[in-house]
Amino acid sequence: MVHDCWAVNSDSRGEELTAFLQNITLFGAAIAFFKQAGKDS
C-alpha cells in the first residue's frame, strides 16, 4: 500500500525527494489552514 520510495533507482531519487517534500509542504499548509479555520468559528 505504501510506495517504497527508497527502492527507486538513483536517476529517479531526486524526483522522488522533490515529490515527497512537496507532499509534506501541502500537508503542513492544510494543517495550518484547518487550524486557522477552526479558530474563526
Overview of the molecule:
This protein has 41 residues and is mainly alpha-helical. The chain is built from one helix and no strands. The longest helix is centred in the middle third of the chain and has 28 residues. The protein is rod-shaped. The model has no long low-confidence stretch (mean pLDDT 86). This is Terminal quinol oxidase subunit.
* Oligomeric category: single chain
Number of strands: 0
Uncertain runs: none
**Termini gap:** 36 Å
Largest sheet: none
Task: Figure out the total of helices.
Answer: 1
Summed over residues and divided by their number, the pLDDT gives a mean of: 86
Work out the helicity level. 55-70%
What is the H/E order? H
Instruction: Output the structural class.
Output: mainly alpha
Global geometry: rod-shaped
What would you report as the Rg, rounded to the nearest angstrom?
A: 15 Å
- Beta-strand content bin: under 5%
Protein name: Terminal quinol oxidase subunit
Organism: Haloferax mucosum ATCC BAA-1512
Keywords:
68% helix; Terminal quinol oxidase subunit; single chain; rod-shaped; mainly alpha; 41 residues
What is the structure about, briefly put?
The protein has 41 residues and is an all-alpha fold.
List the helices and strands and how they pair.
Blueprint lengths: L12 H28 L1
Organism: Haloferax mucosum ATCC BAA-1512
Protein name: Terminal quinol oxidase subunit
